[in-house]
Amino acid sequence: MPAFSSIQSQARFNIRALYLYSFFWMFLMIMPVLVPFFLKQAMTMQQIFLLQVCFGLTVLVLEVPSGYLSDLWGRKKNSAPGCTV
């Protein structure tokens, strides 16, 4: 049964990693890294700003409908279409 124990330990690690990722995502810790990354990709500051605006507007527009649909259909059924956006 060592394979099952290995799977369990990997699952525990993945769950902890997911919780940590979710916790730090709310603080937007990635933001100081994104601007230099996009600058390195030959984007201008205006393009980076417009990209951030598009992201913010998408979150703003889809946040409430996704919560409403999640209440109607359930979280699992709502997550699959949400991942495509």
Q: How are the elements arranged and paired?
A:
Blueprint: H1 2-25, H2 31-40, H3 45-73, H4 75-84
Helix pairs in contact: 3-4
Radius of gyration: 18 Å
Terminal CA distance: 40 Å
Strand content: under 5%
Residue-averaged pLDDT: 84
Shape, principal axes of CA atoms: flat
Instruction: Tell me the total number of β-strands.
Output: 0
The succession of helices and strands, N to C, reads HHHH
Per DSSP, the total helix count is 4
Poorly predicted runs? none
Which structural class do the helices and strands define? mainly alpha
Residue share in helix: over 70%
**Main β-sheet: number of strands, strand sense, barrel status?**
none
What can you tell me about this protein's structure?
- It is a single chain.
- Helix content is 86%, strand content 0%.
- It is built from four helices and no strands.
- Helix 3 (45-73) runs antiparallel to helix 4 (75-84).
- The chain starts with a helix and ends with a helix.
- 0% of the residues are buried.
List the main descriptive attributes of the protein structure presented here.
single chain; 85 residues; mainly alpha; 4 helices
Concise overview:
By secondary structure, the chain is mostly helical. The chain has helices spanning 2-25, 31-40, 45-73, 75-84.
